[in-house]
Amino acid sequence: MDRQTISRIAHTDHPIAAPITDEAVARLIGRAARPEAGRALDLGCGEAGWLLRTLAAKPRWQAVGVDLDPTALNRARQTAQAMGLERRIGLHHLDAAAFTAKEPFDLVLSIGATHAFGGLAPTLAAAGEHLAPGGRLLVGDAFWEREPAQEALDALGAAREDFTDLAGTLDLVRAEGWTPVHGHVSSRQEWDDYELSWTGSLSEWALDHPEHPDSAAALAAADAHRAEWLHGYRGTLGFVTLLLRRTSAH
């Protein structure tokens, strides 16, 4: 199975592809999309869970999502239609780093998609190019909760320098010209719920489709991921979602 298919199945029961509860997502959106009307852009939107929640909460907002997974985008379109939001959202099958727009956005999001830009700093720079003066950026990225052991690095396929700690993450944000005005640090409970949902949904799909040619591969992928989490990076990898504004006028 390709990684996109595995991820899509694994997120069946946790459509926000990050270790964040629905309540925390609602709070972040409430702070990020304060004006009654506005335009939001999600760079690496997946199935557009953040955007659709924003549009549902803000009837006068419009949204644009960009992602490389065509199946995820099709599911986003289906969900938008079911919610009656299809006329307020545009979805583009495109590399997030290559997206351009004629008009800026009041809110730009990039949650768990900094790999598309090569890290947090280039993500901030790219997202900032799409932001209207006075607009807000909602970005989510991993950080080291503690010094990573080799087992954690091996499980994640990561290098020590791929992330810093929480203090270093906030220092980087400030150094790049942004001021955090709100945020959410995912708890151990949120991480555990997310990982159990991820591996559980994938395992259940495999057990429900024993005759499918990918059934064994899906079950193996779930088992491997569970082992990497429990014996590798659990308690080591953190996740923070930050609401940012430019420190100075742009």
Task: Describe it.
This protein has 250 residues and is α/β, with parallel strands linked by helices. The protein has a single domain (15-185, 236-245), classed as Rossmann fold, CATH 3.40.50. The chain has helices at 3-10, 22-32, 49-57, 70-82, 120-128, 150-156, 166-175, 188-208, 215-233; strands spanning 37-43, 60-67, 89-93, 105-111, 131-144, 178-185, 237-246. Strands 3-2-1-4-5-7-6 form a 7-stranded mixed sheet, sandwiched between helices. β1 (37-43), α3 (49-57) and β2 (60-67) form a beta-alpha-beta unit. The longest helix has 21 residues, at 188-208. The radius of gyration is 18 Å and the shape is globular. Pfam families: Methyltransf_12.
Strand content: 15-25%
* Rounded mean pLDDT score: 95
Please give the domain count.
1
The helix content, as a percent range, equals 40-55%
**Could you give a short account of the major beta sheet?**
7 strands, mixed
Query: What's the helix count?
Result: 9
Pfam family, one: Methyltransf_12
Keywords: Methyltransferase, Transferase
Protein name: Class I SAM-dependent methyltransferase
InterPro entries: Methyltransf_12 (IPR013217), SAM-dependent_MTases_sf (IPR029063)
Question: Would you summarize the structure shown here?
Answer:
The chain is α/β, with parallel strands linked by helices and 250 residues long.
